[in-house]
Amino acid sequence: MDMRCGDRRQDENPVAVREFELCEACEIVGSCRQGIDDLRRQADGTVRGEIVVPSAVAGRAVAHGGWTAWVFDELLGYTANSLRGFSVTAELAVKYRRPVPLGARVVLTASGRMDGERRRLMRGEMRCVDTGGLLASAEGVWIELADADAHYARATARPQKTSL
């Protein structure tokens, strides 16, 4: 089985093209820490991006599965937020099909739909640019926040003591 996937040109410095804002942590450093520098909305409403898998995400000679899940969380999140309002991840399931080689050029696609007033059902794929082979796929649920500030304030609040 041919495990080759994409051009192995990590030394390339692609021009960043983003139709979506960087997350807060990436905005501090000025670029996407995952390496997603080309992310665009397509005419049909899907989101498409390309990435060269960075060597810094090595598991054992391939991309770590946690990096793959992180990429899907961001990709599907951008897509969910483009549907309407600000939402957060409620569920994320990743299916790993093949190892993702370091330095490989892969294409990311995502789509989603509203399912009720605040719930979004999302799905995405990571494919090899060379062969079109499916490397991983993901499905998830995002929930629109009624009050984003209150949501994040809960995360930083001190826990209250409870008695049993």
Strand order of the largest sheet: 1-2-3-5-6-7-4
CATH architecture: Roll
Number of domains: 1
CATH superfamily: Hotdog Thioesterase
Q: Which overall shape is indicated by the principal axes computed on the Cα atoms?
A: globular
What fraction, in percent, of the residue positions are helical? Answer: 10-25%
Q: Give the strand tally.
A: 7
How many DSSP helices? 3
CATH class: Alpha Beta
Helix-and-strand structural type: alpha+beta
Compute the separation of the termini in Å. Answer: 58 Å
Q: What fraction of the residues are assigned to beta strands by DSSP?
A: 25-35%
Instruction: Give the low-pLDDT segments.
Output: 7-17
Q: Major sheet: size, sense and barrel closure?
A: 7 strands, mixed
**Helix-strand pattern:** EHEEHEEEEH
CATH fold-level topology: Thiol Ester Dehydrase, Chain A
Radius of gyration: 17 Å
Pfam families: 4HBT
Catalytic activity: octanoyl-CoA + H2O = octanoate + CoA + H(+); hexadecanoyl-CoA + H2O = hexadecanoate + CoA + H(+); (5Z,8Z,11Z,14Z)-eicosatetraenoyl-CoA + H2O = (5Z,8Z,11Z,14Z)-eicosatetraenoate + CoA + H(+); decanoyl-CoA + H2O = decanoate + CoA + H(+)
Membrane topology: Peripheral membrane protein
InterPro entries: HotDog_dom_sf, THEM4/THEM5_acyl-CoA_thioest, Thioestr_dom
Topology:
Blueprint: E1 17-18, H1 24-29, E2 38-41, E3 47-52, H2 65-83, E4 87-96, E5 105-114, E6 119-128, E7 134-144, H3 148-156
Parallel strand pairs: 1-2
Antiparallel strand pairs: 2-3, 3-5, 4-7, 5-6, 6-7
Catalytic activity: octanoyl-CoA + H2O = octanoate + CoA + H(+); hexadecanoyl-CoA + H2O = hexadecanoate + CoA + H(+); (5Z,8Z,11Z,14Z)-eicosatetraenoyl-CoA + H2O = (5Z,8Z,11Z,14Z)-eicosatetraenoate + CoA + H(+); decanoyl-CoA + H2O = decanoate + CoA + H(+)
InterPro entries: HotDog_dom_sf, THEM4/THEM5_acyl-CoA_thioest, Thioestr_dom
Membrane topology: Peripheral membrane protein
